[in-house]
């Protein structure tokens, strides 16, 4: 009798597991089809595509049949990313990725850059403003020209490029603008004042733009990643303007850029207004900043003392 009970349990447990795996497989197939149907043939411009999240986004969107425009200052790295993409086996034929140099700190390049994209592809469906630079130093130790440089790249660079791309999107009555902001666009922590300020500004611009572009059928998404394992801390600027050159422990333990990229891709497919891709601690900080600001400010003050 006992062996019969065990046999019954194993039989029906095994059946349940098989059904669950079958349903999961069907769901994954559905998601894959939904992604491809929404993205195939779309022209996607990605700034900061030479490394990190930008490079991962290039792989993600290219893998679903998008015509990818790779943009950054480092042409040699863009060519490397392009060759990596061309070596991929994709389901259907995809247009060869296009490499176009772009310095987000130079506002005179934006109109010409967008014109180059139109000359090659004829349109822009999705603009992903991902390029940027971070900051590691106190307010007192940070020179004004560092504040200006970070704001020019992170905020004015994204705003200027977006403004250059918008007339074409308005004319075609469709488009999607994505701003890769940061959790620090929602909260601010010590030794990140320049970076947090630029991302707060980007968050506000995105919210205003979303309201204005709704009438033209143009979507606007603001993405706020937490810690992602990239070279962001290595390339961050110190108060003097030098490279930080240190891999922060929190960054080293962050999400893989590929994980972050597929979350962003799905957010574009679903046309989400906002997306937070973060670990528990930053999410808790966001909650505390809204629900218990005095406690949040106390915690940040204690953190600031530890970093001095």
- Could you tell me the mean pLDDT? 90
Q: Main β-sheet, in a few words?
A: 7 strands, parallel
The backbone outline, from C-alpha atoms, is globular
How are the strands ordered across the major sheet? Answer: 3-2-1-4-5-6-7
Structure in words:
- The chain has 308 residues and is of the alpha/beta class.
- The protein is 55% helix and 12% strand.
- The chain is built from ten helices and seven strands.
- It has helices at 2-39, 52-63, 75-86, 110-121, 144-172, 193-213, 249-252, 257-269, 280-291, 293-307, and strands at 43-47, 67-72, 98-101, 126-129, 175-180, 218-225, 274-277.
- The radius of gyration is 22 Å and the shape is globular.
Write a brief structural summary.
The protein is α/β, with parallel strands linked by helices.
List keywords for this structure.
308 residues, alpha/beta, 10 helices, 7 strands
Ordered list of secondary-structure elements with their pairings:
Elements: H1 2-39, E1 43-47, H2 52-63, E2 67-72, H3 75-86, E3 98-101, H4 110-121, E4 126-129, H5 144-172, E5 175-180, H6 193-213, E6 218-225, H7 249-252, H8 257-269, E7 274-277, H9 280-291, H10 293-307
Parallel strand pairs: 1-2, 1-4, 2-3, 4-5, 5-6, 6-7
């Amino acid at each position: 009798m006992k062996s019969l009970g065990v046999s019954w349990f194993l039989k029906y447990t095994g059946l349940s597991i098989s059904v669950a795996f079958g349903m999961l497989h069907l769901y994954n197939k559905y998601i894959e089809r939904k992604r491809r149907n929404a993205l195939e043939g779309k022209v996607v411009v990605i700034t900061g595509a030479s490394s990190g999240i930008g490079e991962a986004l290039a792989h993600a969107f290219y893998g679903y049949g998008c015509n990818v425009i790779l943009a950054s200052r480092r042409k040699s790295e863009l060519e490397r990313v392009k060759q990596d993409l061309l070596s991929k086996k994709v389901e259907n034929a995809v247009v060869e990725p296009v490499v176009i140099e772009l310095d987000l700190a130079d506002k005179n390049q934006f109109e010409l850059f967008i014109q180059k994209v139109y000359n090659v592809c004829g349109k822009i469906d999705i603009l992903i403003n991902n390029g940027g630079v971070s900051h590691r130093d106190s307010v007192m130790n940070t020179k004004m020209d560092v504040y200006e440089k970070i704001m020019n790249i992170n905020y004015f660079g994204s705003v200027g490029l977006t403004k250059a791309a918008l007339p074409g999107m308005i004319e075609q009555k469709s488009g999607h603008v994505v701003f890769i902001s940061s959790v620090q666009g929602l909260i601010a922590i010590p030794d990140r004042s320049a970076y947090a300020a630029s991302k707060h500004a980007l968050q506000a611009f995105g919210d205003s733009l979303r309201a204005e572009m709704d009438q033209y059928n143009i979507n606007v998404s603001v993405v706020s990643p937490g810690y992602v394992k990239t070279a962001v801390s290595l390339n961050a600027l110190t108060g003097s303007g030098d490279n930080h050159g240190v891999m922060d422990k929190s960054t080293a333990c962050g999400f893989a850029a590929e994980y972050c990229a597929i979350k962003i891709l799905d957010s574009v497919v679903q046309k989400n207004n906002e997306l937070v891709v973060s670990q528990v601690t930053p999410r808790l900080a966001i909650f505390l900043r809204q629900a218990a600001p005095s406690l949040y400010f106390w915690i940040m003050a204690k953190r600031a003392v530890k970093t001095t």
